[in-house]
Specification:
Elements lengths: L2 E3 L11 E3 L16 E2 L26 E2 L12 E7 L8 E6 L4 E5 L9 E2 L13 E3 L8 E3 L1 E2 L6 E3 L7 E7 L2 E5 L5 E5 L3 E4 L15 H6 L55 E3 L12
Antiparallel strand pairs: 1-2, 3-4, 5-6, 5-8, 6-7, 9-16, 10-13, 10-16, 11-12, 13-14, 14-15, 15-17
Keywords: Ribonucleoprotein, Ribosomal protein, RNA-binding, rRNA-binding
Protein name: Large ribosomal subunit protein uL2
GO biological process, one term: cytoplasmic translation
């Protein structure tokens, strides 16, 4: 797998790149029909038709692949049938077929290939790539992904392409993980995780090259607040190019820089052992 750079045949192609899809087993293979559902696109609007998520709309049509994030089918071997492309996420997905004939999609970790066997169990499994088990049964220092935050809820941590977490320690009924952001977090040791890192780590190196490719993903253009009228944004208006006359803020007046965006009384804050480093100043957040 890797990145393929386009030749600069046009301004839109210049500096643009795309994945070479070398890890896809069969480019002509259609996705498993029984694991496809059609999703309704709302364009960022809620049930009352009001835009609550800005800059969304349009995009290429796509079907949603039902991915098994829970991996609760224990002690049944599953063969990897194919590695496929998923338009709904940055990583690849793997189609696995269990010994009883059932097929499911899972996130494709790095170094997982067609023909390999994966399994889920409460204990007794080797820490091989693609196997899923509780954190209490995984050796310390192992790289994991698709980690649950609550037992049985399904993986929520480290699901994007190239991400991984490291199991550092265990104490009583808790396990300690180091996340990609540098944050150290406690999760219940009964939570499940999959061995290995998520595949296709080259995703972050792809350059879109033109605005149209962003529109294909369902993202509409962003407009600067200073370019708007005062009726549309607090920083709008003014004669000529005005800097806004106030600190940067959102259309509703919420300050955009220097403030914490996390709720002070968020219930999961007590599970954070060490916070991630601030991207702006390179220091640990308090």
């Amino acid at each position: 797998m890797g990145i393929r750079n386009y030749k600069p045949t046009s301004p839109g192609r210049r500096d643009a790149s795309v994945a070479d899809f070398a890890e896809i087993t069969d480019r002509k293979k259609k996705p498993e029909k029984s694991l496809l559902v059609r999703i309704t696109r709302k364009g960022g609007r809620n049930n009352q038709g009001v835009i609550t998520a800005r800059h969304r709309g349009g995009g290429a049509r796509k079907m949603y692949r039902l991915v098994d994030f829970r991996r609760e089918k224990d002690n049944v071997a599953a063969e990897v049938v194919a590695i496929e492309y998923d338009p709904n996420r940055s990583c690849r997905i793997a189609l696995v077929q269990y010994a009883d004939g059932e097929k499911r999609y899972i996130l494709a970790p790095a170094k997982l290939e067609a023909g390999m066997t994966v399994m889920s169990a409460e204990s007794g499994l080797d820490p091989d790539v693609g196997n899923c088990m509780p954190l209490s049964a995984i050796p310390l220092g192992t790289t994991v992904h698709n980690v649950e935050m609550r037992p049985g809820r399904g993986g929520q941590i480290c699901r994007a392409a190239g991400t991984e977490a490291v199991l550092n320690a265990r104490e009583s009924s808790w396990a300690q993980l180091t996340l990609p952001s540098g944050e150290v977090r406690r999760v219940p040791a009964a939570c499940r995780a999959t061995i290995g890192a998520v595949g296709f780590s080259e995703h972050s190196a792809i350059s879109l090259g033109k605005a149209g490719r962003k529109r294909h993903m369902g993202w509409r253009p962003r407009v600067r607040g200073t370019a708007m009228n005062p009726v549309a944004h607090p920083m709008g208006g003014g004669e000529g190019r005005n800097a806004g006359g106030r600190h940067p803020c959102s259309p509703t007046g919420v300050l955009a820089k220097g403030g914490n965006t996390r709720k002070r009384r968020k219930n999961s804050s007590k599970s954070i052992v060490r916070r991630r480093k601030s991207r702006r100043y390179g220091v640990q957040k308090i």
